[in-house]
Design a protein that fits this description.
A hairpin with an 8-residue loop joins strand 11 and strand 12. The relative contact order is 0.15. The protein has a domain of about 190 residues: Aromatic compound dioxygenase (Protocatechuate 3,4-Dioxygenase, subunit A). Helix 5 packs parallel to helix 7. It is globular and about 75 Å long. Helices cover about 25% and strands about 20% of the residues. The strands form 3 sheets. Strands 1, 2, 5, 11, 12 and 13 form a 6-stranded mixed β-sheet that branches. Strands 4-3-8-9-10 form a 5-stranded mixed β-sheet, with no helix packed on it. It has a two-stranded antiparallel sheet with strand order 6-7. The chain is an alpha/beta fold. This is Aromatic compound dioxygenase. Its cofactor is Fe(3+). InterPro entries: 1_2-HQD/HQD, Catechol_dOase_N, Intradiol_dOase_C, Intradiol_dOase_core, Intradiol_RC_Dioxygenase. Pfam families: Dioxygenase_C, Dioxygenase_N.
Length: about 300
């Protein structure tokens, strides 16, 4: 009962009431916004077709409901399990690709985007350039990450841009997952100077498994998939007058680049960590320029 000729034919060709889905869609009221009407109408049609195509049982439907409820109960200001479930089925990465492709249709594309992930915090501490986000970690490779934020059109430096950075520790855990880490370990916010420069000390990232104790982990087990993410550092870069960039950068030497459990790797986000000489604070360096597109750029 495959949906090969469009969703309308799935309903019409099935053994089930061919008018039911349209009846549900047409129940939408006249004050609904056009976008809400479009998105929800499409969602209802696709999810009804999915149920018919697979002849979904009551037990299977309820198992899905219970998994969604489980994700909600586990989510708080430190962890977003619903988002993690979207990640493991590739939905957030797909939405990110759609957003990035639209932005890339501008004449001068900004730095590529990547998914936010479930461990972002809004209250990261504001730090001075050349300071460190590493606290009480003695088994990692300290890296001096620096670069310039540039206007993607003029190529001129962007002063006053905020760079929000966060990463997991060497044990594979973000600080809000690990009571042994100090609060806000391995995260901070930096502001570019008049030359567009930013710089801070962080860890060379290491691969880690996404949390396996919730519905996202359960789903991976049911699908016989591994939970590992390639080594990466999260960034959000924003400045008034520019489109913000949410992204991740990935270590070229990581073994999971081609098999990321949340499908977030893009070739343009793969970077090289190089040896650093003459700096007593770090053994590695990452020079990473970031390009922001002006808000006025159209598709």
């Amino acid at each position: 009962m495959a949906a090969t000729n469009g969703s309308a034919n799935v309903a019409a060709d099935s053994r089930f009431d061919p008018t039911f889905t349209q009846h549900v869609i047409e129940a939408t009221g006249p004050k609904t916004t056009p976008r809400m009407r479009q998105v929800m109408g499409s969602l209802i049609r696709h999810i009804h077709d999915f149920a018919r195509e697979n002849e979904l049982t009551i037990d299977e439907w309820m198992a899905g409901v219970e998994m969604i409820n489980w994700a909600g109960k586990m989510s708080d200001e430190k962890r977003n399990e619903g988002q993690l479930m979207c990640d493991v089925i590739g939905l957030e990465s797909l939405v990110d690709e759609i957003t990035f492709k639209r932005a890339a249709e501008t004449t001068d594309a900004a730095t590529a985007s990547a998914i936010l992930g479930p461990f972002f915090r809004h209250d990261a501490p504001i730090l001075e350039n050349e300071s460190t986000i590493v606290h009480d970690v003695d088994d990692g490779e300290i890296t001096y990450m620096h670069g310039k934020v540039l206007d993607s059109v003029t190529k001129k430096p962007v002063a006053g841009a905020w760079i929000d950075v966060w990463q997991a520790s060497t044990n594979g855990l973000y600080e809000q997952q690990d009571n042994d880490q100090v609060e806000h370990n391995l995260r901070g916010k930096f502001k570019t100077d008049e030359n567009g420069h930013y710089g801070f000390y962080c860890l060379r990232p290491t691969p880690y498994p996404i949390p396996f104790d919730g519905p996202a982990g359960k789903l991976l087990q049911l699908l016989d998939r591994h939970p590992y993410r390639p080594a990466h550092i999260h960034l959000i870069v924003q400045r008034e007058g520019y489109k913000p960039v949410t992204t991740q950068i990935f270590d070229r030497k990581d073994p999971y680049l081609k098999d990321d459990s949340v499908f977030a790797v893009k070739d343009s986000l793969i970077v090289d960590f190089t040896p650093l000489k003459g700096n007593s604070k770090a053994t590695l360096e990452l020079d990473y320029p970031i390009h922001l597109a002006p808000q006025g750029e159209s598709h």
